[in-house]
Write a structure and sequence with these properties.
The complex is a heterodimer of chains A (111) and B (108). With 111 residues, chain A is mainly beta. Chain A has strands spanning 5-7, 10-13, 19-24, 31-37, 44-50, 53-57, 65-68, 75-79, 88-95, 101-102, 106-110. The chains are: A mainly beta (111), B mainly beta (108).
Chain lengths: 111, 108
């Protein structure tokens, strides 16, 4: 069964550093998403991406966040200057017209 | 006020019991999703519903659009069903809005 692949599975970074989280969505899917889940809290929407541009973003997705699809297969989330409160599990998801397929997540720890 | 509310928050049952998890939402939606999250954190999609009822193995999901309510049922529950079950809705936008999840524990 096709999978959404996320790398790395766990990343520890110093506060103020830039991180890039990587995702390989399912190849024929058209819609791509980033969600995050702070420990003990519910999953929150960050951004959706369609036709090589952002289609919707949440209040959380401020200027320190950006997304790219650099080579037609990878889908990346960049956090420019990490803060302690960015520590969370970050999920990539993709879909065609139906249900979502989620990656297994990247656990980001900012110290 | 949360747009998606689940009950109960925690549920412990014995193997073999019939399980029901409820989800209420307050916004108009194009679809409702039931998801499963295992202790390692990964999220698996179980059902996408826009009306009626769907069944997959021992899992059954129903939705009542007029009452803005959905239920997830598990028949003949098994310890491997232990996980967090999450209700999420698509409110006519690109995003999913998630409930807080129901932590289910099935004891042998």
């Amino acid at each position: 069964e096709p999978e959404v692949t996320q790398t790395p599975s766990h990343q520890v970074t110093q506060m103020g550093q830039e991180v890039i989280l990587r995702c390989v969505p399912i190849s024929n899917h058209l819609y791509f998403y980033w969600y995050r889940q702070i420990l003990g809290q519910k999953v929150e929407f960050l951004v959706s991406f369609y036709n090589n541009e952002i289609s919707e973003k949440s209040e959380i997705f401020d200027d320190q966040f950006s997304v790219e699809r650099p080579d037609g297969s990878n889908f990346t989330l960049k956090i420019r200057s990490t803060k302690l409160e960015d520590s969370a599990m970050y999920f990539c998801a993709s879909r065609e017209t139906g249900g979502y397929t989620f990656g297994s997540g990247t656990r980001l720890t900012v110290v | 006020k949360n747009e998606v509310e689940q009950s109960p928050q925690n549920l412990t049952a014995q193997e073999g019991e019939f399980i029901t998890i409820n989800c209420s939402y307050s916004v108009g939606i194009s679809a409702l999703h039931w998801l499963q999250q295992h202790p390692g954190g990964g999220i698996v999609s179980l059902f996408m519903l826009s009306s009626g009822k769907k069944k997959h193995g021992r899992l059954i999901a129903t939705i009542n659009i007029q009452e803005k309510h959905s239920s997830l049922h598990i028949t003949a529950s098994h310890p491997r069903d232990s996980a967090v079950y999450i209700c999420a809705v698509s409110p006519y936008t690109q995003k999913l809005v998630f409930g807080q999840g129901t932590r289910l524990t099935i004891n042998p």
